[in-house]
Amino acid sequence: MAINWHEELIDQLDFYWKNQFRPRLDGLTDEEYFWEPVSGCWSVRPQPGGGAVREYAFPPPDPPPVTTIAWRLCHIGGDCFEMRASNHFGDGSYRPDRTHWPLTAADALAYVDTQYTAWRAGIEELDDEALTQPVGETEGPHAQRTYATLILHLNRELMHHGGELGLLRDLYRAAAGRVMST
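and the corresponding structure tokens:
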């Protein structure tokens, strides 16, 4: 039996997105979006005069700080989807320091939805041959890895951080005895 790897990669992404990731974020509030379960969290911070900054350092400190729901959603939307859609299927103009990081839960969900849609549309256009091609220098030390490998990596990133988001939502609810629908 022949396997359609292109279809399998997209099905994996879509299944997780539609059945676990997005439904798990329903009802996200601004208070929860910025909630810091411990001191010293990295988050998205409003800036004097407007705009926001997403806290970040490369390499990250050891141990890395705990990150908020805001930080994680912006990481998924920006570092995972927007950067890759821009670099591989767009004009390559994505820059984290020029990104308008969302300052509300609703805006963050819209941002992640938009970037997921752009990434998914790009990988939808890849054919079987393109899946086996190197991703190129925009992926740094991983330049010789294939597009199939990049797609699998971003699927894992979404699942990994999606699980963290779910846990943060559970902790937020439990911390104050809140009742939330899931």
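(Above: one complete record from the training split.) The mean pLDDT is 95.
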